[in-house]
Design goal:
Blueprint (H helix, E strand, L loop, with lengths): L6 E3 L15 E6 L14 H10 L4 E3 L5 E3 L2 E6 L5 E6 L12 H14 L4 H5 L3 E8 L2 E6 L6 H5 L16 E5 L7 E5 L20 E6 L1 H9 L5 E5 L4 H5 L7 E4 L4 E7 L9 H9 L3 H4 L36 H19 L4 E5 L4 H15 L4 E5 L7 E7 L5 H6 L12 H10 L5 H18 L2 E3 L6 E4 L25
Parallel strand pairs: 2-11, 2-12, 15-16, 15-17
Antiparallel strand pairs: 1-13, 3-4, 5-6, 6-8, 7-8, 9-10, 10-11, 12-19, 13-19, 14-17, 14-18
Helix pairs in contact: 7-9, 12-13
Length: 490
């Protein structure tokens, strides 16, 4: 379930970063430095932001996460919701060739082929045809209506790259002295399909971008080396809390997505759904995040938020509405004890979480709850053999189908449920919204009954934002486009 943005604001006492107009905006994205330059369709958060800045798709997202024109300057949707017709802007690729519907069609089809076998590819499975209608008009046809389709098209992975370059709105260059640093500058308005504007450079600030480990990014913000830090997660949140907040602001996105433990082993204690359910029953979600001081975080026991079903799904806010937490704990403990007595084995679970002080706190809270039912928890590093792995992922659009697709057997991430996959596949072609909803409710129920995921709540995404940076808006998608940051703040 999405949660309300938590805004921790301190007095802006000193401006350590550059503030005069025309000076660069320095941005750090928490992550691996090499991940910033990833190509293809499996992008890190840093690479997503860079792709969105330099290679637009048909549409893009604004700072609030709303869909705006990009290579397509406008569009219409047919009354049946199954055809999207886009008119492309009158502009050119970096090599000077005109952007045409035929060229965009070829690039889109190639990108869709690349995405096969990914969760985003499953999300895009409703596309049945891509047609170039005239020189600057392209049509995308769907197997059934999808109200969130434009938001899906705005994903950075659908940015169009031709001969190694995109159509903006920014152009990238690598710093000669510091190869991990990217310099971004806006393209002229006429190269973005807009009227030419005299002295346009005076109205657009340059931007530098780098990917850094969380601790280094927070330190860089505190010393004024960077003005904006993106992609903070729960694992790294304590680092931001300890930083000098008088120099800026922590902003927490009201994120939508998955945050919980994916079951990756069906051996021993985890062999039966009833014992996997016992682990979920035993977690006190109401107190899980208290050590972080994140107000407004709403825990959940369901995979997909009930409110995303239209109308809302016919299941209660709690999976176990007739049981108090202590009753749940007793039932869970009895199931674990029965298995231990039968097998003579000690209940031990290896849990993989990402590195960071927040992960240690989270695991401490979970381990305490599982210890109360007789289960011992061992942390393991990423890549080591594990029984459960933290799944922390932002949603791309607000539909139960996105949540269901994250566990598709084709992704081979952990335990899965073929029945849920089949129900979701059948829903792709149904025109009747009531029937589509029914199948998605059944698919979700099949996933829940299989007990392959222990949901905890929404993902946490935080940023550090200096007062001179704008426009920046917290949003539920956790994507913060770089190009708008270069626009005038006065």
């Amino acid at each position: 379930m999405r949660f309300l943005a938590c805004l921790l604001v301190a007095i802006l006492a000193v401006s350590c970063g550059p503030s005069r107009d025309g000076s660069p905006i320095d941005v750090a994205i928490i992550g691996d430095a090499e991940g910033l330059f990833a190509e293809g369709v499996r992008l890190s958060p840093a690479a997503q932001h860079l792709r969105a800045a330099t290679a637009e798709g048909l549409v893009a997202l604004d700072p609030a996460g709303q869909v705006i024109p990009a290579i397509a300057e406008r569009w219409i949707v047919t009354d049946d919701g199954m055809s999207y017709i886009f008119r492309l802007r009158d502009s050119a690729w970096p090599d000077g060739d005109t952007i045409t519907a035929a060229g965009v069609r070829r690039l889109l089809l190639a990108r869709l082929e690349q995405l096969e076998g990914t969760s985003l590819g499953l999300d895009l499975a409703k596309i049945t045809d891509v047609r170039a209608m005239t020189g600057r008009v392209i049509e995308l046809r769907l197997s059934s209506p999808m109200p969130q389709f434009l938001r899906l098209l705005a994903q950075p992975e659908l940015g169009l790259v031709r001969s190694g370059s995109g159509a903006g709105p920014m152009i990238m260059s690598r710093d000669e002295e510091e190869q991990a640093l990217v310099r971004l500058s806006a393209l002229p308005p006429e190269d973005r399909g807009l009227p030419a504007r005299e002295n346009w450079e005076e109205y657009a600030r340059p931007l530098t971008l780098r990917a850094m480990p969380a601790e280094a990014a927070v330190d860089a913000f505190s010393t004024g080396e960077v003005d904006l830090v993106l992609n903070g997660k729960l694992a790294t949140f304590p680092l931001a809390e300890l930083g000098p907040l008088s120099r800026g602001t922590i902003r927490v996105d009201p994120a939508l997505g998955l945050f919980g433990l994916l079951v990756v082993s069906d051996a021993g204690l985890l062999a039966e759904p009833e014992r996997r359910e016992a682990l979920s029953m035993a977690i006190d979600r109401a107190t899980l995040i208290e050590p972080f001081g994140l107000g407004g975080w709403q825990p959940t026991e369901w995979i997909a938020p009930p409110g995303l079903f239209d109308p809302p799904a016919p299941f209660p806010s709690s999976r176990w509405p007739d049981l108090q937490f202590e009753q749940r704990r007793l039932i869970a403990a009895a199931r674990i004890a029965a298995w231990s007595a039968e097998t003579g084995e000690e209940p031990v679970l290896r849990v993989e979480l990402p590195p960071g002080p927040g992960s240690a706190i989270l695991l401490r809270e979970i381990a305490r709850d599982w210890q109360a039912i007789g289960v011992r928890t061992e942390p393991v590093d990423p890549g080591e053999e594990a029984d459960l792995v933290l799944r922390d992922r932002l949603a791309r659009y607000s539909s139960p189908r996105w949540f269901i697709n994250q566990f598709n057997c084709r992704l081979d991430l952990g335990l899965c449920e073929p029945e849920a996959d089949e129900l979701a596949r059948q829903a792709l072609v149904l025109d009747d919204p009531a029937e589509r909803r029914r199948l998605l409710v059944e698919a979700h129920a099949a996933l829940v009954d299989a007990e392959i995921f222990i949901p905890l709540g929404p993902p946490v995404r935080w940023s550090l934002v200096r007062g001179a940076v704008g426009p920046y808006e917290a949003n539920q998608w956790g994507l913060h486009p770089l190009f708008p940051l270069t626009q005038p703040t006065r």
